Amino acid sequence: MAPSLPPDTSKTTKLERYNSYLRRVNTTKLLAASSTLLFRATLLISLLLLFLFTLSSPTQPHHHRQLLSSTLTPSWEKQVRQSSTPRRPSGLSVLVTGAGGFVGSHCSLALKRRGDGVLGLDNFNSYYAPSLKRSRQSLLLKHSIFIVDGDINDAELLSHLFSLVPFTHVLHLAAQAGVRYALRNPLSYVRSNVAGFVTLLEAAKAADPQPAIVWASSSSVYGLNSDNPFSEHHRTDRPASLYAATKKAGEEIAHTYNHIHGLSLTALRFFTVYGPWGRPDMAYFSFTKDILSGRAISVYVTQDDKEVARDFTYIDDVVKGCLGAIDTAEKSTGSGGVKRKSAQLRVYNLGNTSPVSVKDMVVILEKLLGVKAKKNIVKLPRNGDVPYTHANVSLAERDFGYRPSTDLQTGLRKFVKWYVGYYGIKTRVNKETATVGEGEVVESS
Ligand SMILES: NC(=O)c1ccc[n+]([C@@H]2O[C@H](COP(=O)([O-])OP(=O)(O)OC[C@H]3O[C@@H](n4cnc5c(N)ncnc54)[C@H](O)[C@@H]3O)[C@@H](O)[C@H]2O)c1
Ligand SMILES: *[C@@H]1O[C@H](CO)[C@@H](O)[C@H](O)[C@H]1NC(C)=O
């Protein structure tokens, strides 16, 4: 309020100053009055919103704060118990994390089919179309498998589940997958693959009985390894992506929980899994979509123009590997968080043992779809993808009879059949006579 102007003694200016002073006083009063009104209105609206939120929270399973209100309902607990109760004598009771995902949904169905109890857990995040995850959920529900809507970082939820059900096994498949997405959202990998895994292991360690844990690592841990085929004893300390680094971190974290707390832990290094209900972010899937809609696809070659190849592994083979690992997993040895004696710690490759170049994969797709692809040949960017993967699966074969039996042609045929059915695509292709470049495909509206 201290005027820095030189004092003005003229009458008019004094009057003007007085008037402007009055105006200011009035505005201040008005402001004060309106802000009181605003404050009261805000308070009222906040209370109203809070009230409405409390009413509606049980139907918003994504929000963590509502855990107790939604999980304490008897019907929710009944669903959890029913879903996880085995239907065969000495059947297992398995918590499948990532059950709304590609591999998780297939494994859940396979376990249920043979009479084991299965409870799913998934946060249905939008890394790719949640509608596809919800469709898998509906399929599982038809087979009496309930998926809890929740995050593996929710310690309270996990300990609640372990207190409700004496799980014999956890099949831990929830993760932030994909290599290139790490450039856009690096912390999602840390949250799900590192922090989430630790939260899960903490809950499992404290559970009574402690479950045995089988979980998904990745072939990407081989990183810059150039010995072929990739064997479990090869170096895995040079990851080429943040995704690979978080999976490798998981393997080290697993060692710790095995060593200190006696948890039985088995890591499965999957090699490019594909098939019906697959992941839309993977090349075989997005290529199918783009080829059908006439969009050009980017086919990678290495920096020195060599072919990029993958050890594509069909989903049914991977499911057999997961079940084999579960069936040979020994019990955890700890109780009350304390290890009683040494427990099992294993790592296995689950691949197909016959790499196919991406170029040849596209040729197979072209034949199956009856459409010639528009291709851009692009150098593999140095952002995480490795040029070549090839699994040595002799350890998994020795320990649980793992023997992949589906070649890429056969597996992709099953994928394409599912794809056109799921997305309602009408093909005017005569499958028997179609040759590359012929046939017409229209997407139904
Ligand atoms: N498909 C492959 O080729 C492949 C290869 C190597 C490793 N893996 C690993 O296998 C596992 C399964 O892969 P997928 O292909 O089925 O992937 P996916 O993305 O289809 O399935 C993962 C599921 O986990 C859920 N999820 C993610 N973060 C979660 C969290 N914090 N809490 C609860 N749920 C969460 C997702 O919503 C998704 O449904 C992953 O661990 C993946 O890293 C897959
Ligand atoms: C495959 O792995 C096994 C066990 O680790 C090893 O004995 C064998 O030599 C490997 N085979 C090849 C071809 O590298």
Automatic annotation (TrEMBL):
Residues 94-331 form the NAD-dependent epimerase/dehydratase domain. Coiled coil: none annotated. It is an enzyme of class 5 (isomerase). It is found in: Golgi apparatus, Golgi stack membrane. It comes from Cinnamomum micranthum f. kanehirae. Belongs to the NAD(P)-dependent epimerase/dehydratase family. Keywords: Isomerase, Membrane, NAD, Transmembrane, Transmembrane helix. GO terms for cellular component: Golgi cisterna membrane. It catalyses: UDP-alpha-D-glucuronate = UDP-alpha-D-galacturonate. It comes from the Eukaryota. The chain crosses the membrane at residues 30-55. This is UDP-glucuronate 4-epimerase. Its EC number is 5.1.3.6. Pfam families: Epimerase. Its main location: Golgi. One of its GO terms (molecular function) is UDP-glucuronate 4-epimerase activity. It is a multi-pass membrane protein.
